[in-house]
Specification:
The complex is a heterotetramer of chains A (about 300), B (about 375), C (about 250) and D (about 400). Chain A is mainly α and about 300 residues long. Chain A is about 70% helix and about 0% strand. Chain A has eleven helices and two strands, in the order H-H-H-H-E-E-H-H-H-H-H-H-H. The chains are: A mainly alpha (about 300), B mainly alpha (about 375), C alpha/beta (about 250), D alpha/beta (about 400).
């Protein structure tokens, strides 16, 4: 790396570090919802990406309305959009659980197929409502541009925003799962459905809200992604494999595992991308994941259970 | 012979089903369809190969592979490489800066044939490669996963990731394997023009015969002790293991068989369609193959073939008239099959039979329940 | 103590820990030839874990398990079975989609390799053996029935039959009479007494009357350790056992 | 020779026109149809059938919508002018569904079952490559609208978009001259068109301009993470970023560039993959001040274009935007009309022969003037447009007419 000053290298190092962290927050936000649905409930939700797209389209829709009818709200509409995305995706998740998923709890591989069917229907609905073209909402000005702590370092504001949002969502999920009575019920139901039912937990209700929560978080992820990329009818399917990899690699039932796995995958990929081409970086990252999974089939953070 | 009739063909009812299928694809289609439609059916039938393979692997073995497209692709690419080399004779490629190598290599500044292409100049090697390469690949994946007891959902997701890896790899290495365009413009096989109507009819029949053969092979496997073990492993894997079987070997074997079936389909696809591209390797085609199988009936080898035909007919017909509706219909079909008809077309057929004539139903139940011990007693007596 | 013994099964200093929790702790247990050995103990005593360790389902943290002087702790499950150890699970573990006949056929100890199973032929010898076992387990009239339709007790017997067909030297049964009617229990006790001839049997059971009827020797496990061992009477009168079972 | 042919064409036209008029009354025109259609195409006394084959569903539907709209507009206009050889054009539309074998399948259907006289369609290289053997085998005629990598010249295809050198070389010359650019960073999506384009660009930069390529990068299609690449770009500090990122990735790429503080104030960026269509998704504010090289921009100020944009918006709505490929697709039916009339026949071979004469020209093309080269590609001009916030470009440079050269010497 001849010809570069130390401060330049330092700046690149800092920014590259942030690129990794930014990818980490993206992966984590995507995976959190799935970690709840797949990890806690064991449902393979192939339509998870589409629930993200629901969030993204909701944000786009609200942005269009705000721009046309309430321009004065432009600077803050994004927060409203995030909240509505959460609620709307959550509501759809609730309905999906009620009409589809609950019949399939004992057949995990079949949920995979059914939710794939659901994802096709959702994709076509997006196309019918919003057209085949990719859309992206008009972002408030404060979300654009970058923060410059020094002359040479630019930290993208949207990246920081997504990071902040991810931290908040993660904390809330942790609180809900590990500190609230609802979380206790969820964990109890996950571990022993029959017993939980017997001690008076309404497991059906717990399932429904857990699924809705997972989908709602996917909706938040979708809303956040509009700051980074555009949204099309098939956007969701781009993310689904990566998302599953994060959750599986982390050890399905462990939220800490999900965080660790999102972090390691993000860092590996962004560092590799810096040195080799993007396509090969992806190939190597995925290959490494498979090989590690071969040796730790239960993922990074699976707890030993006495069976 | 009696064994063959009773067990492999499934006695009278099984044989009837097989003969009906044979008549439909060998006689009815060629008789009633023009060459254009017949070629389409031929293409659909190549998708039936992975669908049948999934009946063995998923329906009986309980191993859901979302990566059958990988093997379909490997078989297809092996065949495509051979045909491409033949199409890239120095005379045909005289305008290139390096004549005699496939056009896409020339565009990517390759000046000589990569080493892994060289053996594909031999047709014998290619035919072997269609079978052996996917089998080796499946063996490696299978050994890595099943020895480590990776199964169920995890296996499904990992095979899906493998499909992604292979797609990205093919697309990224366009100088070596043709990139996203795939390997196109395949015209002759040993100098014989494969784009003529005549050739298409011949390939169609080859395709049918091979398909019927793999159905028989599938039945041979299912009616052996291996078949019972497959079901046993699906339902109670630990019990099988603690009955003294090395479960992983059985899974690896059936995974390899399924990969070979899929690969044969892929090779036939290349021959009939005239090209191969990464769009048959990825996630979507792989899941579609599962759908063909699920719609046809995951426990029925013959059902899977009808499933592949029905869905593809539907796709073509609907996409011509209501492209919008098709995805809704397809999605709905998925959900309906999973929720209401877990045994697919084959299951519906059986239920339908139930209602139509009680007699038939009784006969059937008797038939299904009977076979094995009955024989045993007869033999003893 | 010398490394080789006359015991069918010799467990020495066996320990397994799950994330620090020692489910089995420094256990020594011996099963003699032709002995029907029952392990009892309160819930969580580590009984099932011991069986898991013997048959290789769980890997030991330390210690040794010798079966006919062969070390089992390093062997894969199917080899342990092939060496002559059969194990019945707590909940009946049979193939519900296969007929009783097929269940037994699948367990028949030939054609255990991939190729072997493909080429396996249902010979007269195989059929005779299956019918013989079916008679032993009182299922000779249900051979054609899908196993899923059997009663709970019959399923337990079927699973025992699936082990018997392999002629194991050591038969391990995890709660064989759980969920059985009184009559079925009696029949099972008879069955156990019959099949324990010529082989060692290790049984986990809660039902004390039943234990009394069958046991040659009883071992009481508590918190992963042996609390008492000996014949039924001795164990029943052991104050430590009474304390554990009755509590304070 | 030429004159005579011209004259005979005129006479023929007259005859044909008369025949059609007469035909309405006397039904005596079958002879004429037999004359203009000797190979059994779907041509009747008053209609001629053509096919349109684009993706209406799937991922490519986004891009291909504009193209098929433009083709329908051109055909409607031609019909309003009286059709071709007195025959109205009838359209059979098929959906390629973003699936390459479907393109081959539908091509075969159009040619074998429907016997169409010409097909306007395909968008991606992969779909063209899949359909090409069918067109060659069944001797059909395809008008292909997209700017593409070149390295192809089929008897059965007329390429109405630019091949790679037509788009790349003049743009690079311009940026080297105007911006004194010496160092370039190349980035594209990972497939054949960006890779081939970058290959040509690299050769031109290194061998002709005497500049330096400081980085070359390809990202998988659909990729949305550009953080690492952007950092690499920062480290290398190229004078120009030369980009060919496509599809959904494009939006992520430009948004992240802006977020990383790389804007036109600090950095020259030249792209060959952004038209007005893409800007809709990316947003003008993310592109402001960056440059595209195309042969057509919607903002082009000439009477042809004004009329075209007006007609397009009338037919497809006030909100529609028109990109480079849309315009190229619009040329297809007109070029076919000119060739058919020149040949005096719908027979594929005769139409192709007429097209290969090298004198078919359109003075009414929205992009200005185009002429069909014997090598089946168009002579056209390259233009550099600078993007404005409103999603339209200001044309800052227009080249001379550039000869198409699908097999460029020294660039392979």
């Amino acid at each position: 790396m001849g010809g570069y000053t130390y401060s330049e290298l330092g700046a690149i190092f800092a920014m590259q570090g942030f690129a990794g962290i930014s990818l980490f927050s993206v992966l984590l936000l995507m995976a959190l919802g799935l970690a709840i649905i797949f990890g806690q409930m064991g449902v393979i939700n192939m339509a998870h990406g589409e629930f993200m797209a629901v969030g993204a389209y909701t944000t786009y829709f609200i942005s269009t309305i705000t721009e046309n009818y309430l321009p004065s709200l432009m600077p803050i509409y994004f927060f409203i959009a995030i909240a509505v995305s959460f609620l709307f995706a959550g509501l759809l998740g609730y309905l999906a659980e009620f009409s589809l998923i609950r019949h399939l709890y004992k057949r995990p591989l079949d949920t995979l197929l059914a939710t794939w069917g659901l994802s096709l229907i959702m994709q076509q609905s997006f196309r019918s409502f919003f057209g085949a073209r990719e859309v992206s909402p008009t972002l408030p000005d404060w979300l654009l541009g970058s923060y410059q702590p020094t002359e040479m370092i630019d930290i993208p504001i949207n990246g920081m925003f997504v990071l902040g949002l991810t931290i908040i969502v993660t904390l809330v999920v942790f609180y809900l799962l590990f500190k609230s009575s609802w979380g206790l019920k969820v964990r109890a139901t996950t571990q022993n459905r029959v017993m939980s039912g017997a001690v008076g937990i309404n497991t059906q209700k717990v399932d429904r809200y857990t699924f809705a929560l997972g989908c709602g978080i996917a909706g938040i992820a979708g809303a956040a992604f509009t700051t980074i990329a555009s949204t099309g009818p098939t956007t969701g399917s781009l993310y689904i494999v990566d998302t599953f990899m994060v959750v599986v690699f982390g050890g399905a039932a462990s939220l800490f595992g999900t965080i660790a796995s999102a972090f390691s995958i993000a860092q590996a990929q962004s560092i590799l991308e810096f040195f080799i081409s993007g396509s090969m970086a992806k190939v190597y990252t995925l290959l490494a994941l498979i090989i590690i999974l071969m040796f730790k089939p239960e993922g990074l953070f699976a707890s030993k259970v006495r069976r | 012979m009696n064994y063959f009739y009773e067990k492999v063909m499934g006695g009278k009812s099984g044989l009837t089903g097989f003969i009906i299928l044979a008549v439909v694809i060998l006689v009815a289609f060629p008789l009633f369809l023009d060459i254009f439609r017949l070629n389409l059916v031929g293409k659909y039938l190549t998708y039936a190969f992975p669908a049948v393979s999934l009946v063995l692997l998923w329906g009986y073995g309980g191993i859901l592979s979302l990566g059958q497209g990988v093997f379909f692709g490997l078989g297809g690419y092996a065949m495509a490489m051979f045909l491409k080399l033949e199409a890239s004779s120095p005379e045909n490629t005289a305008i290139q800066s390096t004549p005699g190598i496939p056009d896409f290599m020339d565009w990517n500044q390759l000046t000589e044939l990569p080493w892994f292409w060289v053996p594909f100049e031999s047709f014998t090697f290619t035919l072997l490669a269609v079978i052996i390469v996917p089998a080796i690949f499946a063996y490696i994946i299978g050994a890595a996963m099943f020895k480590r007891r990776v199964g169920g959902v995890y296996f499904a997701i990992i095979t899906q990731v493998i499909a992604v890896i292979l797609t990205v790899l093919i697309v990224g290495q366009q100088g070596y394997i043709g990139g996203i365009n795939g390997i196109t413009d395949l015209r002759t096989l040993h100098g014989w023009d494969i784009t003529t109507d005549n050739a298409k009819v011949i390939f169609y029949y080859i395709c049918c015969l091979l398909l019927l053969s793999i159905v028989i092979v599938g039945r041979l496997i299912l009616t052996s002790k291996f078949g019972s073990l497959l079901l046993a492993m699906r339902d109670k894997e630990d019990r099988v293991r603690f009955s003294g079987y090395d479960v992983s070997h059985f899974k690896i074997f059936i995974f390899c068989v399924a990969s070979i079936f899929s690969a044969i389909g892929g090779a036939l696809f290349t021959l009939q369609v005239g090209f191969m591209s990464p769009s048959f390797v990825g996630i979507v085609p792989s899941i579609e193959m599962v759908i063909f199988c699920a719609v046809g009936g995951r426990m029925s080898l013959i059902g899977a073939i009808y499933g592949a035909l029905l869905i593809n007919f539907g796709k073509t017909a609907f996409s011509e008239t209501f492209p919008q509706l098709w995805l809704f219909l397809m999605g709905g079909l998925f959900i309906a099959v999973v929720m209401f008809f877990p045994n697919g077309l084959a299951g519906i057929w059986n239920t339908y039979g139930h209602y139509i004539t009680d007699r038939l139903k009784q006969l059937k139940t008797v038939f299904v329940m009977k076979p094995s011990p009955q024989e045993a007693k007869q033999d003893l007596g | 103590m010398s490394a080789n013994t006359d015991f069918t099964l010799a467990i020495e200093e066996l320990t397994v820990s799950f994330d620090g929790f020692k489910a089995v702790n420094d256990l020594n247990l011996y099963v003699d030839k032709n002995e029907l050995h029952v392990v009892i103990g309160p819930n969580g005593a580590g009984k099932t874990t011991v069986l898991d360790l013997i048959c290789g389902k769980t890997k030991a943290t330390s210690g040794s398990i010798k079966f006919l002087n062969k070390e089992l702790t390093t062997m894969p499950e199917h080899k342990i079975v092939r060496a002559g150890v059969g194990r019945k699970f707590q909940t009946p573990s049979i193939y519900e989609n296969l007929s009783v006949f097929e269940n037994l056929e699948v367990s028949y100890p030939y054609g255990r390799s991939v190729l072997g199973s493909l080429l396996f032929k249902r010979t007269e010898k195989v059929e005779r053996k299956i019918i013989k076992i079916a008679q032993d387990i009182m299922l000779e009239d249900s051979l054609d029935m899908p196993a899923g339709l059997l009663s709970h007790g019959q399923k337990q017997w079927l699973e025992i039959g699936m082990l018997l067909i392999q002629d194991p030297q050591l038969l391990m049964l995890d709660e064989p009479v759980a969920g059985m009617s009184v009559k079925e229990r009696e029949q099972t006790a008879e069955l156990l007494n019959k099949i324990s001839k010529g082989r060692s049997v290790l049984v986990i059971e809660h039902d004390m009357d039943f234990v009394e009827r069958i046991a040659d020797k009883v071992t009481v496990l508590h918190q992963g350790k042996i609390l008492a061992a000996g014949d039924m009477k001795k164990v029943q009168n052991d104050p430590k056992v009474i304390e554990v079972y009755l509590g304070h | 020779m030429k004159l005579k042919q011209h004259a005979s064409k005129r006479t023929f036209m007259k005859n044909a026109a008369c025949a059609v008029v007469l035909g309405l009354f006397t039904m005596a025109s079958s002879q004429v149809t037999a004359e203009v259609n000797t190979t059994g195409l779907a041509v009747t006394d008053d209609t001629v059938t053509v096919g349109i084959l684009h993706s209406l569903t799937g991922t490519m539907a986004i891009s291909e919508t504009g193209a098929q709209e433009a083709e329908k507009l051109a055909i409607k206009q031609i019909n309003e002018m009286g059709g071709i050889l007195g025959r109205k054009i009838k359209i059979i539309q098929e959906d390629g569904a973003s699936d390459w074998p479907t393109f081959a399948e539908k091509s075969r259907k159009l040619l074998v079952k429907d016997k169409v006289a010409a097909v306007f369609g395909c968008w991606t290289s992969a779909s063209r490559k899949a359909a090409l053997p069918v067109f060659e085998k069944e001797n059909g005629l395809l008008y292909y609208p997209t700017f593409y990598e070149g390295l192809e010249q089929s008897k059965n295809v007329i390429y109405t978009g630019q091949e790679a050198t037509q788009q790349i070389i003049d743009g690079l010359n311009w940026v080297a001259k105007e911006k004194k650019a010496k160092t370039f960073y190349l980035i594209g999506s990972d497939y054949i068109w960006p890779r081939t384009s970058m290959k040509i660009a690299r050769k031109h930069i290194e061998n002709v301009l005497g500049g330096k390529v400081v980085g070359e990068e390809y990202k998988p299609l659909g990729n949305t993470q550009f953080g690492s690449v952007i950092n690499k770009i920062r480290l290398k500090k190229p004078d120009v970023i030369y980009a060919a990122v496509v599809g959904g990735s494009n939006v992520a790429w430009f948004k992240q560039l802006k977020a990383a503080g790389i804007t036109s104030k600090k950095q020259t960026l030249l792209t060959i993959s952004v038209t007005e269509d893409e800007v809709l998704g990316i947003g003008g504010e993310n592109l402001e001040g960056f440059y595209s090289i195309m042969k057509y921009f919607q903002s082009q100020d000439n009477p042809n274009n004004k009329a075209f944009v007006k007609a397009f918006k009338e037919m497809w709505g006030e909100d529609s935007v028109i990109g480079d490929v849309t315009q190229a697709a619009y040329l297809g039916p007109w070029l076919w009309k000119a060739a058919v009339e020149k040949a005096g026949s719908f027979d594929i071979d005769k139409v192709v022969a007429a097209s290969e004469k090298g004198d078919i020209e359109l003075t009414t093309a929205p992009e200005g003037y185009v002429k069909l080269h014997p090598n089946h590609h168009l002579w056209s001009k390259a233009r550099v447009g600078r993007w404005n916030k409103d999603g339209q470009a200001t044309v800052v440079y227009t080249s001379e007419l550039i000869e198409p050269d699908p097999f460029p010497k020294g660039y392979q």
